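Ligand-bound model needed. adenosine monophosphate.
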Amino acid sequence: MILYNTLTREKETFIPNEEGKVKMYTCGPTVYHYAHIGNLRSYIMEDVLLRELRYEGYEVKRVMNITDVGHLSSDADTGEDKMVKGALREHKSVMEIAKFYTDAFFEDFKKLNNIYPEVVEPATNCIDDFIKVVSVLLEKGHAYIAGGNVYFDTSTLENYYALTPHKEDDLRVGVRDDVEADENKKNPADFVLWFTKSKFEDQQLKWDSPWGVGYPGWHIECSCISMKHLGENLDIHCGGVDNIFPHHTNEIAQSEAYLGHKWCNYWFHVQHLNDRNGKMSKSEGNILTVSTLEEKGYHPLVYRFYCLQSHYRKPLEFTFENLDNTKAIYEKLTSRVAELAKQVTPDQVVDSSLLDENKRKFINVVGNDINTASGISLLYDTFKLEANPATKLAVLESFDEVLGIGIKEMESGRVTQEVESVDEDLLAYINEKIEERKEAKKAKDFTKADAIRDELRAKGIEIKDTREGVVWKRI
Ligand code: AMP
Ligand code: ZN
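Prediction:
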Protein backbone atom coordinates (compact mmCIF):
# COMPACT_ATOMS: atom_id res chain seq x y z
CA MET A 1 0.00 0.00 0.00
CA ILE A 2 1.09 3.52 -0.71
CA LEU A 3 0.04 6.20 1.75
CA TYR A 4 0.56 9.92 1.99
CA ASN A 5 2.25 10.57 5.31
CA THR A 6 1.65 13.99 6.87
CA LEU A 7 4.87 13.57 8.86
CA THR A 8 7.15 13.32 5.81
CA ARG A 9 4.79 15.17 3.45
CA GLU A 10 5.34 12.39 0.91
CA LYS A 11 3.62 9.35 -0.44
CA GLU A 12 5.38 6.30 0.97
CA THR A 13 5.21 2.55 0.73
CA PHE A 14 3.50 1.44 3.90
CA ILE A 15 5.62 -0.90 6.03
CA PRO A 16 4.27 -1.80 9.49
CA ASN A 17 6.53 -2.40 12.46
CA GLU A 18 5.57 -6.06 12.63
CA GLU A 19 5.13 -7.97 9.39
CA GLY A 20 1.48 -8.46 8.45
CA LYS A 21 0.15 -6.65 11.53
CA VAL A 22 -1.06 -3.07 11.79
CA LYS A 23 -1.65 -0.99 14.89
CA MET A 24 -4.02 1.82 14.08
CA TYR A 25 -5.28 4.62 16.31
CA THR A 26 -8.13 6.99 15.55
CA CYS A 27 -9.07 10.10 17.47
CA GLY A 28 -12.66 9.54 18.52
CA PRO A 29 -15.47 12.03 18.94
CA THR A 30 -15.88 14.64 21.64
CA VAL A 31 -19.28 13.55 22.87
CA TYR A 32 -20.99 16.85 23.70
CA HIS A 33 -23.17 16.93 20.60
CA TYR A 34 -24.20 14.80 17.64
CA ALA A 35 -21.43 14.07 15.17
CA HIS A 36 -22.01 16.11 12.02
CA ILE A 37 -21.52 14.71 8.55
CA GLY A 38 -18.12 16.48 8.39
CA ASN A 39 -16.84 14.48 11.36
CA LEU A 40 -18.31 11.41 9.73
CA ARG A 41 -16.44 12.06 6.48
CA SER A 42 -13.25 11.51 8.50
CA TYR A 43 -14.58 8.28 10.01
CA ILE A 44 -15.77 6.95 6.65
CA MET A 45 -12.38 7.51 5.01
CA GLU A 46 -10.57 5.99 7.99
CA ASP A 47 -12.89 3.01 7.70
CA VAL A 48 -11.94 2.57 4.04
CA LEU A 49 -8.27 2.67 5.07
CA LEU A 50 -8.92 -0.04 7.65
CA ARG A 51 -10.87 -2.18 5.19
CA GLU A 52 -8.24 -1.76 2.47
CA LEU A 53 -5.50 -2.87 4.87
CA ARG A 54 -7.52 -5.96 5.74
CA TYR A 55 -8.27 -6.60 2.07
CA GLU A 56 -4.54 -6.59 1.42
CA GLY A 57 -4.14 -9.26 4.09
CA TYR A 58 -3.02 -7.25 7.12
CA GLU A 59 -4.30 -8.08 10.55
CA VAL A 60 -5.38 -4.69 11.90
CA LYS A 61 -6.10 -3.72 15.49
CA ARG A 62 -7.85 -0.38 15.70
CA VAL A 63 -8.29 1.68 18.86
CA MET A 64 -10.49 4.74 19.28
CA ASN A 65 -10.90 7.03 22.27
CA ILE A 66 -14.02 8.81 23.38
CA THR A 67 -13.29 12.33 24.56
CA ASP A 68 -15.52 12.81 27.56
CA VAL A 69 -13.30 15.21 29.50
CA GLY A 70 -10.61 17.82 28.91
CA HIS A 71 -11.37 19.11 25.38
CA LEU A 72 -11.65 22.84 25.91
CA SER A 73 -13.57 25.22 23.71
CA SER A 74 -10.36 26.31 22.06
CA ASP A 75 -7.83 23.64 21.22
CA ALA A 76 -5.21 25.98 22.70
CA ASP A 77 -6.11 25.26 26.35
CA THR A 78 -8.52 28.14 26.76
CA GLY A 79 -12.24 28.25 27.37
CA GLU A 80 -14.57 25.89 29.13
CA ASP A 81 -14.56 22.12 28.80
CA LYS A 82 -16.83 21.28 25.85
CA MET A 83 -18.48 18.51 27.87
CA VAL A 84 -19.40 20.91 30.67
CA LYS A 85 -20.89 23.32 28.15
CA GLY A 86 -22.92 20.48 26.64
CA ALA A 87 -24.17 19.41 30.05
CA LEU A 88 -25.22 22.95 30.99
CA ARG A 89 -26.98 23.38 27.65
CA GLU A 90 -29.05 20.27 28.23
CA HIS A 91 -29.47 20.47 32.03
CA LYS A 92 -27.84 17.07 32.41
CA SER A 93 -24.73 15.69 34.02
CA VAL A 94 -21.56 15.30 31.99
CA MET A 95 -21.79 11.51 32.17
CA GLU A 96 -25.39 11.54 30.92
CA ILE A 97 -24.38 13.72 28.00
CA ALA A 98 -21.40 11.48 27.28
CA LYS A 99 -23.52 8.34 27.24
CA PHE A 100 -26.23 9.84 25.06
CA TYR A 101 -23.89 11.21 22.40
CA THR A 102 -21.56 8.19 22.43
CA ASP A 103 -24.55 5.95 21.67
CA ALA A 104 -25.76 8.37 19.01
CA PHE A 105 -22.29 8.44 17.46
CA PHE A 106 -22.05 4.67 17.14
CA GLU A 107 -25.57 4.44 15.73
CA ASP A 108 -24.51 6.78 12.93
CA PHE A 109 -21.20 4.97 12.62
CA LYS A 110 -23.05 1.70 12.02
CA LYS A 111 -25.55 3.18 9.59
CA LEU A 112 -22.63 4.33 7.48
CA ASN A 113 -21.24 0.78 7.43
CA ASN A 114 -18.17 1.70 9.46
CA ILE A 115 -16.58 -1.24 11.23
CA TYR A 116 -16.68 -0.92 15.03
CA PRO A 117 -13.10 -0.61 16.38
CA GLU A 118 -11.58 -3.47 18.38
CA VAL A 119 -11.15 -1.11 21.34
CA VAL A 120 -13.22 1.95 22.22
CA GLU A 121 -12.01 3.65 25.37
CA PRO A 122 -13.50 6.72 27.10
CA ALA A 123 -10.89 9.08 28.52
CA THR A 124 -12.52 9.01 31.95
CA ASN A 125 -11.60 5.29 32.21
CA CYS A 126 -7.90 6.02 32.06
CA ILE A 127 -7.14 8.64 34.69
CA ASP A 128 -4.44 6.48 36.34
CA ASP A 129 -2.70 6.03 33.00
CA PHE A 130 -2.65 9.80 32.44
CA ILE A 131 -1.26 10.40 35.93
CA LYS A 132 1.49 7.84 35.35
CA VAL A 133 2.64 9.40 32.07
CA VAL A 134 2.46 12.97 33.39
CA SER A 135 4.55 11.92 36.43
CA VAL A 136 7.23 10.46 34.16
CA LEU A 137 7.25 13.59 32.00
CA LEU A 138 7.84 15.67 35.13
CA GLU A 139 10.61 13.32 36.31
CA LYS A 140 12.31 13.50 32.94
CA GLY A 141 12.19 17.31 32.92
CA HIS A 142 9.77 17.56 30.00
CA ALA A 143 7.03 19.08 32.12
CA TYR A 144 6.70 21.75 34.81
CA ILE A 145 4.14 22.96 37.31
CA ALA A 146 2.96 26.56 37.14
CA GLY A 147 -0.08 28.27 38.59
CA GLY A 148 -1.46 24.93 39.76
CA ASN A 149 -1.39 23.25 36.32
CA VAL A 150 1.12 20.82 34.84
CA TYR A 151 2.47 21.99 31.47
CA PHE A 152 4.49 20.21 28.80
CA ASP A 153 7.70 22.12 28.06
CA THR A 154 7.97 22.16 24.27
CA SER A 155 11.44 23.72 24.38
CA THR A 156 12.85 20.41 25.67
CA LEU A 157 12.30 18.83 22.25
CA GLU A 158 14.48 19.36 19.21
CA ASN A 159 11.73 18.99 16.69
CA TYR A 160 8.40 19.85 18.26
CA TYR A 161 7.09 21.17 14.92
CA ALA A 162 7.91 18.04 12.88
CA LEU A 163 4.30 17.43 11.89
CA THR A 164 3.50 21.04 11.24
CA PRO A 165 6.52 23.09 10.15
CA HIS A 166 4.77 26.41 9.55
CA LYS A 167 3.08 26.79 12.89
CA GLU A 168 5.93 28.27 14.91
CA ASP A 169 5.45 31.84 13.65
CA ASP A 170 1.68 31.68 14.08
CA LEU A 171 2.13 30.91 17.71
CA ARG A 172 3.83 34.10 18.72
CA VAL A 173 1.20 35.59 20.98
CA GLY A 174 -0.61 38.41 19.30
CA VAL A 175 -0.44 36.81 15.89
CA ARG A 176 -3.36 34.52 16.49
CA ASP A 177 -6.32 36.34 17.96
CA ASP A 178 -7.84 33.25 19.53
CA VAL A 179 -4.79 32.43 21.66
CA GLU A 180 -4.94 34.15 25.00
CA ALA A 181 -1.56 34.62 26.63
CA ASP A 182 -1.31 32.18 29.52
CA GLU A 183 1.11 33.75 31.99
CA ASN A 184 2.08 30.33 33.31
CA LYS A 185 3.48 29.04 30.04
CA LYS A 186 7.23 29.22 29.53
CA ASN A 187 6.84 28.97 25.76
CA PRO A 188 3.75 29.89 23.72
CA ALA A 189 3.39 26.34 22.38
CA ASP A 190 3.47 24.68 25.83
CA PHE A 191 0.26 22.91 26.67
CA VAL A 192 -1.56 21.65 29.73
CA LEU A 193 -1.19 18.01 30.76
CA TRP A 194 -3.19 18.31 33.97
CA PHE A 195 -5.43 21.14 35.16
CA THR A 196 -6.07 21.95 38.78
CA LYS A 197 -6.73 25.64 38.22
CA SER A 198 -9.11 26.93 35.65
CA LYS A 199 -10.99 30.14 35.23
CA PHE A 200 -14.08 27.98 35.04
CA GLU A 201 -15.04 26.65 38.42
CA ASP A 202 -17.92 24.45 37.26
CA GLN A 203 -15.82 21.51 35.97
CA GLN A 204 -18.00 18.56 37.00
CA LEU A 205 -15.56 15.67 36.85
CA LYS A 206 -12.37 15.94 38.86
CA TRP A 207 -9.91 13.40 40.21
CA ASP A 208 -7.24 13.34 42.84
CA SER A 209 -3.68 13.52 41.55
CA PRO A 210 -0.18 14.19 42.92
CA TRP A 211 -0.66 17.82 41.79
CA GLY A 212 -4.05 18.35 43.38
CA VAL A 213 -7.65 17.64 42.44
CA GLY A 214 -8.18 18.29 38.76
CA TYR A 215 -8.63 16.85 35.31
CA PRO A 216 -6.48 15.88 32.33
CA GLY A 217 -5.73 17.93 29.23
CA TRP A 218 -7.15 16.67 25.95
CA HIS A 219 -3.93 15.68 24.17
CA ILE A 220 -2.63 13.36 26.89
CA GLU A 221 -5.72 11.16 26.45
CA CYS A 222 -4.87 9.97 22.99
CA SER A 223 -1.20 9.27 23.73
CA CYS A 224 -2.07 7.22 26.80
CA ILE A 225 -5.02 5.34 25.34
CA SER A 226 -3.00 4.45 22.27
CA MET A 227 0.00 3.22 24.32
CA LYS A 228 -2.27 1.33 26.71
CA HIS A 229 -3.77 -0.80 23.95
CA LEU A 230 -1.23 -0.70 21.14
CA GLY A 231 2.09 -0.48 22.94
CA GLU A 232 5.09 1.72 22.29
CA ASN A 233 5.16 1.56 18.49
CA LEU A 234 2.17 2.74 16.55
CA ASP A 235 1.86 2.22 12.79
CA ILE A 236 -0.90 4.61 11.74
CA HIS A 237 -2.57 7.49 13.53
CA CYS A 238 -5.67 9.05 11.95
CA GLY A 239 -7.82 12.14 12.29
CA GLY A 240 -9.20 15.15 10.46
CA VAL A 241 -6.72 17.83 9.31
CA ASP A 242 -7.77 20.18 12.12
CA ASN A 243 -6.19 17.66 14.49
CA ILE A 244 -2.69 18.14 13.01
CA PHE A 245 -2.09 21.16 15.18
CA PRO A 246 -2.07 21.37 18.11
CA HIS A 247 -3.58 17.98 18.96
CA HIS A 248 -1.40 15.54 17.04
CA THR A 249 1.69 17.71 17.32
CA ASN A 250 1.28 17.57 21.09
CA GLU A 251 0.56 13.86 21.07
CA ILE A 252 3.89 13.25 19.33
CA ALA A 253 5.70 15.58 21.74
CA GLN A 254 4.49 13.93 24.93
CA SER A 255 4.57 10.33 23.64
CA GLU A 256 8.12 10.55 22.33
CA ALA A 257 9.34 12.46 25.38
CA TYR A 258 7.81 9.75 27.56
CA LEU A 259 9.05 6.79 25.51
CA GLY A 260 12.45 8.21 24.52
CA HIS A 261 12.01 6.99 20.94
CA LYS A 262 9.92 7.48 17.82
CA TRP A 263 6.29 6.63 18.41
CA CYS A 264 4.16 6.60 15.25
CA ASN A 265 5.35 6.13 11.66
CA TYR A 266 2.39 7.17 9.49
CA TRP A 267 -0.05 10.04 9.96
CA PHE A 268 -3.27 9.88 7.95
CA HIS A 269 -5.35 13.06 7.83
CA VAL A 270 -8.69 13.58 6.16
CA GLN A 271 -9.48 16.99 4.69
CA HIS A 272 -12.63 18.79 5.75
CA LEU A 273 -16.13 18.64 4.54
CA ASN A 274 -17.23 22.22 3.96
CA ASP A 275 -20.58 23.72 3.35
CA ARG A 276 -21.05 27.01 1.53
CA ASN A 277 -20.19 28.91 4.71
CA GLY A 278 -16.92 27.05 5.28
CA LYS A 279 -15.83 24.20 7.53
CA MET A 280 -18.66 22.30 9.15
CA SER A 281 -18.14 22.52 12.88
CA LYS A 282 -19.93 21.15 15.93
CA SER A 283 -19.43 24.27 17.97
CA GLU A 284 -21.13 26.39 15.27
CA GLY A 285 -24.41 24.74 16.14
CA ASN A 286 -25.82 24.61 12.63
CA ILE A 287 -24.90 21.08 11.87
CA LEU A 288 -26.09 18.41 9.49
CA THR A 289 -26.35 14.97 10.99
CA VAL A 290 -27.08 11.52 9.60
CA SER A 291 -30.58 11.82 11.07
CA THR A 292 -31.14 15.08 9.18
CA LEU A 293 -30.19 13.32 5.96
CA GLU A 294 -32.50 10.41 6.75
CA GLU A 295 -35.36 12.77 7.56
CA LYS A 296 -34.87 14.33 4.15
CA GLY A 297 -35.05 10.92 2.51
CA TYR A 298 -31.38 10.07 1.94
CA HIS A 299 -30.09 6.66 2.94
CA PRO A 300 -26.89 7.02 5.04
CA LEU A 301 -25.02 4.93 2.47
CA VAL A 302 -25.77 7.56 -0.16
CA TYR A 303 -23.67 9.89 1.96
CA ARG A 304 -20.91 7.26 2.22
CA PHE A 305 -20.99 6.97 -1.58
CA TYR A 306 -20.80 10.79 -1.79
CA CYS A 307 -17.61 10.78 0.28
CA LEU A 308 -16.01 7.95 -1.68
CA GLN A 309 -16.36 9.83 -4.92
CA SER A 310 -13.63 12.27 -3.96
CA HIS A 311 -10.14 11.90 -2.58
CA TYR A 312 -9.72 12.12 1.18
CA ARG A 313 -6.91 14.69 0.89
CA LYS A 314 -9.06 17.21 -0.96
CA PRO A 315 -11.62 19.42 0.74
CA LEU A 316 -15.12 18.31 -0.15
CA GLU A 317 -18.00 20.69 -0.57
CA PHE A 318 -21.37 19.52 0.60
CA THR A 319 -24.50 20.65 -1.21
CA PHE A 320 -27.90 19.03 -1.40
CA GLU A 321 -27.82 19.38 -5.21
CA ASN A 322 -24.72 17.17 -5.31
CA LEU A 323 -26.22 14.77 -2.80
CA ASP A 324 -29.31 14.50 -5.03
CA ASN A 325 -27.07 13.56 -7.95
CA THR A 326 -25.32 10.96 -5.82
CA LYS A 327 -28.65 9.58 -4.70
CA ALA A 328 -29.77 9.17 -8.31
CA ILE A 329 -26.50 7.43 -9.21
CA TYR A 330 -26.74 5.21 -6.14
CA GLU A 331 -30.31 4.20 -6.97
CA LYS A 332 -29.32 3.36 -10.53
CA LEU A 333 -26.45 1.26 -9.23
CA THR A 334 -28.87 -0.52 -6.90
CA SER A 335 -31.13 -1.43 -9.84
CA ARG A 336 -28.19 -2.64 -11.91
CA VAL A 337 -26.93 -4.84 -9.09
CA ALA A 338 -30.44 -6.18 -8.44
CA GLU A 339 -30.83 -6.91 -12.17
CA LEU A 340 -27.49 -8.72 -12.24
CA ALA A 341 -28.40 -10.76 -9.15
CA LYS A 342 -31.57 -11.94 -10.89
CA GLN A 343 -29.48 -13.35 -13.71
CA VAL A 344 -27.43 -15.59 -11.44
CA THR A 345 -28.41 -19.26 -11.70
CA PRO A 346 -27.21 -22.21 -9.57
CA ASP A 347 -25.24 -23.74 -12.46
CA GLN A 348 -22.98 -20.70 -12.88
CA VAL A 349 -19.46 -21.17 -11.59
CA VAL A 350 -17.44 -18.20 -10.33
CA ASP A 351 -14.30 -17.73 -12.42
CA SER A 352 -11.81 -17.53 -9.56
CA SER A 353 -8.82 -16.48 -11.66
CA LEU A 354 -10.81 -13.53 -13.05
CA LEU A 355 -11.91 -12.71 -9.51
CA ASP A 356 -8.30 -12.74 -8.30
CA GLU A 357 -7.14 -10.65 -11.24
CA ASN A 358 -9.76 -8.03 -10.42
CA LYS A 359 -8.86 -8.05 -6.74
CA ARG A 360 -5.25 -7.33 -7.68
CA LYS A 361 -6.35 -4.49 -9.95
CA PHE A 362 -8.47 -3.04 -7.17
CA ILE A 363 -5.60 -3.24 -4.69
CA ASN A 364 -3.29 -1.45 -7.12
CA VAL A 365 -5.78 1.32 -7.58
CA VAL A 366 -7.33 1.82 -4.12
CA GLY A 367 -4.12 0.85 -2.33
CA ASN A 368 -2.50 3.86 -3.97
CA ASP A 369 -3.27 6.39 -1.25
CA ILE A 370 -6.90 5.28 -0.82
CA ASN A 371 -8.08 6.28 -4.27
CA THR A 372 -11.74 5.52 -3.70
CA ALA A 373 -13.01 7.38 -6.78
CA SER A 374 -10.99 5.07 -9.05
CA GLY A 375 -12.18 2.12 -6.98
CA ILE A 376 -15.75 3.11 -7.86
CA SER A 377 -14.80 3.29 -11.56
CA LEU A 378 -13.52 -0.27 -11.30
CA LEU A 379 -16.81 -1.24 -9.72
CA TYR A 380 -18.65 0.06 -12.79
CA ASP A 381 -16.18 -1.69 -15.14
CA THR A 382 -17.28 -4.97 -13.56
CA PHE A 383 -20.61 -4.84 -15.38
CA LYS A 384 -18.69 -4.89 -18.69
CA LEU A 385 -16.49 -7.89 -17.84
CA GLU A 386 -16.65 -10.88 -20.15
CA ALA A 387 -17.89 -13.19 -17.46
CA ASN A 388 -21.04 -14.86 -16.21
CA PRO A 389 -23.31 -12.95 -13.78
CA ALA A 390 -22.13 -15.03 -10.78
CA THR A 391 -18.53 -13.95 -11.40
CA LYS A 392 -19.48 -10.31 -11.88
CA LEU A 393 -21.44 -10.36 -8.67
CA ALA A 394 -18.55 -12.02 -6.82
CA VAL A 395 -16.22 -9.23 -8.04
CA LEU A 396 -18.67 -6.54 -6.92
CA GLU A 397 -19.07 -8.15 -3.50
CA SER A 398 -15.33 -8.44 -3.17
CA PHE A 399 -14.77 -4.72 -3.93
CA ASP A 400 -17.48 -3.90 -1.44
CA GLU A 401 -15.40 -5.45 1.34
CA VAL A 402 -13.45 -2.19 1.03
CA LEU A 403 -16.00 0.31 -0.24
CA GLY A 404 -18.78 -0.77 2.12
CA ILE A 405 -21.59 0.73 0.03
CA GLY A 406 -24.02 -2.16 0.58
CA ILE A 407 -23.72 -4.28 -2.59
CA LYS A 408 -25.26 -7.34 -0.86
CA GLU A 409 -28.30 -5.31 0.21
CA MET A 410 -28.56 -3.90 -3.31
CA GLU A 411 -28.93 -7.42 -4.69
CA SER A 412 -32.47 -7.52 -3.43
CA GLY A 413 -33.05 -3.91 -4.49
CA ARG A 414 -33.61 -3.18 -0.81
CA VAL A 415 -31.26 -0.38 0.18
CA THR A 416 -32.90 2.73 -1.17
CA GLN A 417 -36.43 1.59 -0.54
CA GLU A 418 -35.77 1.24 3.16
CA VAL A 419 -35.71 4.94 3.86
CA GLU A 420 -38.67 7.08 3.02
CA SER A 421 -38.98 10.73 3.91
CA VAL A 422 -40.77 11.41 7.15
CA ASP A 423 -44.39 11.84 6.24
CA GLU A 424 -45.89 15.30 6.44
CA ASP A 425 -48.44 14.40 9.13
CA LEU A 426 -45.80 13.07 11.48
CA LEU A 427 -43.68 16.16 10.94
CA ALA A 428 -46.62 18.44 11.69
CA TYR A 429 -47.43 16.42 14.82
CA ILE A 430 -43.82 16.61 16.11
CA ASN A 431 -43.63 20.36 15.52
CA GLU A 432 -46.95 20.89 17.24
CA LYS A 433 -45.78 18.90 20.29
CA ILE A 434 -42.49 20.77 20.43
CA GLU A 435 -44.39 24.08 20.43
CA GLU A 436 -46.77 22.83 23.15
CA ARG A 437 -43.83 21.75 25.27
CA LYS A 438 -42.14 25.12 24.81
CA GLU A 439 -45.28 26.83 26.08
CA ALA A 440 -45.51 24.44 29.03
CA LYS A 441 -41.90 25.16 29.98
CA LYS A 442 -42.48 28.88 29.69
CA ALA A 443 -45.39 28.49 32.11
CA LYS A 444 -43.09 26.42 34.37
CA ASP A 445 -45.40 23.42 33.95
CA PHE A 446 -42.58 20.88 33.90
CA THR A 447 -44.87 17.92 34.51
CA LYS A 448 -46.67 18.70 31.28
CA ALA A 449 -43.40 19.32 29.44
CA ASP A 450 -42.09 15.93 30.57
CA ALA A 451 -45.37 14.25 29.62
CA ILE A 452 -45.04 15.63 26.08
CA ARG A 453 -41.49 14.35 25.85
CA ASP A 454 -42.72 10.90 26.97
CA GLU A 455 -45.60 10.99 24.50
CA LEU A 456 -43.13 11.64 21.65
CA ARG A 457 -40.80 8.95 22.93
CA ALA A 458 -43.67 6.46 22.87
CA LYS A 459 -44.02 7.29 19.18
CA GLY A 460 -40.31 6.60 18.62
CA ILE A 461 -39.17 10.24 18.62
CA GLU A 462 -36.43 11.51 20.95
CA ILE A 463 -36.18 15.25 21.50
CA LYS A 464 -33.28 17.23 22.92
CA ASP A 465 -32.97 20.80 24.05
CA THR A 466 -29.92 22.46 22.59
CA ARG A 467 -28.68 26.02 22.56
CA GLU A 468 -29.93 26.28 19.01
CA GLY A 469 -33.41 25.08 19.92
CA VAL A 470 -35.09 21.70 20.11
CA VAL A 471 -33.79 18.93 17.87
CA TRP A 472 -35.37 15.53 17.36
CA LYS A 473 -34.45 12.16 15.98
CA ARG A 474 -35.95 8.71 15.60
CA ILE A 475 -35.03 6.32 18.42
P1 AMP B 1 -14.43 16.06 17.40
O1 AMP B 1 -15.63 15.25 17.78
O2 AMP B 1 -14.71 17.52 17.26
O3 AMP B 1 -13.26 15.80 18.34
O4 AMP B 1 -14.00 15.58 15.94
C1 AMP B 1 -14.02 14.25 15.51
C2 AMP B 1 -13.23 14.08 14.21
O5 AMP B 1 -13.84 14.80 13.13
C3 AMP B 1 -11.80 14.59 14.28
O6 AMP B 1 -10.95 13.65 13.63
C4 AMP B 1 -11.84 15.89 13.51
O7 AMP B 1 -10.59 16.21 12.97
C5 AMP B 1 -12.86 15.56 12.43
N1 AMP B 1 -13.54 16.73 11.85
C6 AMP B 1 -14.02 17.84 12.47
N2 AMP B 1 -14.63 18.69 11.60
C7 AMP B 1 -14.55 18.08 10.37
C8 AMP B 1 -15.02 18.44 9.05
N3 AMP B 1 -15.70 19.56 8.81
N4 AMP B 1 -14.74 17.58 8.03
C9 AMP B 1 -14.07 16.42 8.26
N5 AMP B 1 -13.63 16.03 9.47
C10 AMP B 1 -13.85 16.84 10.53
ZN1 ZN C 1 -6.82 12.41 19.63
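The longest strand covers residues 59-66.
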